[in-house]
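Researcher: Please predict.
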Amino acid sequence: MEIKSINDVEGIIYDDIVVKQLVSGEMMSCDYFKLPPGAEAAPHAHPAEGILYCLSGELEATVGDEMKVISSGISLLIPFNVKVGLKNSGSVPAEVIVVGSPAGVC
């Protein structure tokens, strides 16, 4: 059994976005992302479904050709093999949890 506190996990920074892998198994992972104002995760596809849950802030989420604004308390299904992009156009950081397959699985 793997148990971690978000405060005990060291973050990695990619293009100003803080990423913390909270837990990861053979088929599932749970990751934390903090996007400062203006930060953007370029559209990219995943080889498996995932779920994004917004903890705080607000993000523009583009899934395929559709854009939706998600905010605190909102969840989003990330379909497999569909491009997904995120952008924080707000004035405060946005924090999300993503549950999906670890890199390289599927």
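Model: The mean pLDDT is 92.
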